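Lab notebook: predicted structure, single chain.

Context: the supervisor wants predicted structures on file for every construct in the current expression panel, including those that have not yet been purified. This is the next one on the list. No modifications to the sequence; it matches the entry in the shared construct table.
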Amino acid sequence: MKIQDIELLLHANRVLASTLDIDLLLKMVLQLAAQVVGAETGSLLLLDEKTNELVFDVALGEAGKELKTIRLKVGEGIAGWVAQENKPLIVNDPTNDPRWAKKADQKTKFVTRSILCVPMVYQDKLLGVVQAINRKDSQGFSEEDQLVLEAFSSQTAVAIQNARLFSSLRQENEKVEMIFSQMTEGAIFCSEDGGVLLSNPIADRLLGLAEGAKSNLWNTLQLFEVNPGMDILRCSKEDVLTFEAKRSEGKTLILSGVRKRILSDRNDIVGHLTIFRDVTAEKKEERMKRDFLSLMSHKLKTPLVAITGYTPMLLEDEDLDKINPFFKKAIKSIHTQGIHLKQLVEKLISFSLIEAEEMKLEKKLHSAKKIIEEVVSGMKTVLEDKKVAVVLDPSLDSLPQLMVDYDKFREILKGLIENAAKFNSKEDKKVIVDSVWESGCAVISVRDNGRGIPPEEFDKIFQKFYQIEESFTGQVEGAG
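Prediction complete. Output recorded below exactly as produced.
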């Protein structure tokens, strides 16, 4: 190989490394290829994998536009043979070669006197073929020309693959940016140290991120009170972490978000994707509802004290039997419903305290089994009416004393047993209370032999005031 040829190859390599504009790149490389092998013109045909045809992608000279309309099947013509056999080929007299397809010359009125054609392969995959046409001298193409063109072809294959990968990445990036921009929630993709790499308009508006300026999510969130805390948000190794951020100063702004760690194939942290939305109005509405609920519950307690306080005295009056039986029945009904209403109000007050995160637990050591027995004993009338048999498993005997809030623990157990009885449509109703003690933790289970909860309803178990439809439960007693 001549020094001049090597210099052209090096120049072609620099051209390949200088741009990812595939059209410009291929045209320049093909011109250099034609120059180094002393050809009048040249063409590059790419393989269309869907149709298994060769398509003229770049063709030098005036005939280029005409050639781009021609397709050759793999195996057709000299280029098709090279693609099929994956071998280079020199044909210095194509008119006498049975493999030569004349339709290109016929369409372009070009006269082909000699052809040097080599396959273009990347990692054992055929991308197309490169052709040098008509050696400028009368000697025809040589094996040395073939070696040079093969070197160009290898470089071109790498360039095409790189350009395709770049184009694919650019398209994916455009898709991500489009999805980001169309999202109704704020979305930020940031590096591990919090540097914002990509954000959508909602995120920019809510967090005041300056467009085009270097921003850091962790620094921005320092202006907020973050629950469960900034250190946990930044350093937690959980793949998905939910958080709430409330602006410390100025106009109230509350954001509810999810932070997801993005990991590489090697399990290294690439960055974090944070999705959040403005829940300020929702929180305000919830607080107003909670305050109203709490106020009305406390207001209702005053007349209920009178009702539930006086009705027992009336029922104990010795003269009650002398009055009209209807009045006696009415007083009993008022007393029963008053107690029921009092329980509902107490539940509402308890609920409002929980919602306001103001409930305080007074934890002391208690015997879990003793509390469970008290709850079952207190529900004796209800359980008998519903014909429910409650079985206390022997595993409860081995439980040590537990640090619990007595009243709240009783309330929880009562609610579970009550639901187990209420929503069981079988005639032979059974509720089993058992326990497991592991690693210093007690797991107490309340199980029944009813229909159970459908799997699709599991994620709604803790949803406020939710009940499965009546057609499944058979009843809608209670508030959910």
